[in-house]
Write a structure and sequence with these properties.
single chain, mainly alpha, Rhopdopsin 7-helix transmembrane proteins, globular, taste
Length: 290
């Protein structure tokens, strides 16, 4: 597993640097950064930190063995793992809400108020989101560290039933609520776009075809991102409830690694600026090679 994780980290490292570097240059140039770019940068950074965490954990395990981990060390491992996962879902939820408020127009006072206030929450809401992730993950990490201080966290998630972990159940309940909550603006956006496209087709309108195409592209990106989030959170729950045999754990672990591998192109796909820059770099490299 160490070789696989290291390989994925090596492959995706240029992509993470590309996302962060382009957005930093954009911020230095314009002294501001679009909300979607802020969230995409945050998601890219979280994905990169997760890969570094995986490789670092496996290196320590290979060099010193599992016995080298103390109770406080296991607490730190579980805290980092759970908080990174929850913060990723939280940032994805903000991104879904942002696209919904940007695309969908509803003539209701409360909705209009949210449209006006939501952009003012950035970038200040990002740091509290990280702190909330740590706060919610800490009790679950304490729960896990008490029971699994002698084995790896992914392997041991299947060695006991979920009912023994009260704070872990609370953690999964909150993450499930966040995931369901993120589906609401996504469904509203899809329904609104379908109605708008149907209205344009029925009236043979093509004035805003480019705008609609961009919105549809954004919705597809959100759907892919939420599907990967669902995969990331459903699998540990199923493992914790012992619905799979322990021999299936490596397959599940591989799915979790694949999530972070697929996450990178989806994040780049979600930003037209990043796509344009990547296309320019690709053309430049093709020209140099030829």
């Amino acid at each position: 597993m160490l070789a696989i994780n290291s390989c994925f980290l090596f492959i995706t490292f240029p992509g993470h640097i590309f996302i962060l570097a382009m957005n930093i240059l954009e911020w230095k140039k314009n002294k501001r950064l679009d909300i979607s770019d802020q969230l995409i940068s945050g998601l890219g950074l979280l994905s990169f930190l997760y890969k570094v965490f995986q490789v670092g954990f496996k290196c320590v395990e290979v060099i010193h063995g599992v016995q080298a981990f103390t109770g406080s060390a296991w607490l730190s491992v579980y805290l980092i793992y759970n908080s990174l996962n929850f913060c990723t879902l939280l940032f994805s939820t903000w991104l879904t809400i942002h696209f919904c408020l940007k695309i969908v127009n509803i003539n209701q006072n409360f909705y209009i108020y949210i449209q006006r206030m939501f952009p003012k929450m950035f970038p200040w809401i990002l740091l509290p989101s990280v702190l909330v992730s740590l706060l919610i993950s800490l009790p679950a990490a304490q729960d896990l560290s008490k029971h699994y201080s002698n084995s790896t966290f992914l392997l041991n998630l299947g060695s006991s039933q979920l009912k023994r972990f009260h704070y872990l159940k609370l953690y999964y309940s909150i993450t499930s609520f966040c995931f369901v909550f993120s589906l609401i603006p996504l469904l509203i956006t899809i329904v609104s776009l379908c109605r708008h496209i149907h209205r344009m087709q029925s009236h043979s309108l093509r004035l805003r075809a480019d705008s609609v195409s961009a919105h549809v592209y954004a919705v597809k990106t959100l759907i892919l991102l939420l599907c990967l989030n669902c995969l990331q959170f459903v699998i540990p729950v199923l493992v914790t409830q012992r619905r799979y045999n322990s021999t299936f754990i490596p397959v599940i672990f591989l799915f979790l690694v694949m999530w972070h591998l697929c996450n990178l192109p989806i994040l780049i796909r979600g930003s037209s600026k990043l796509q344009k820059k990547l296309h320019e770099i690709w053309i430049c490299c093709s020209f140099l090679v030829s």
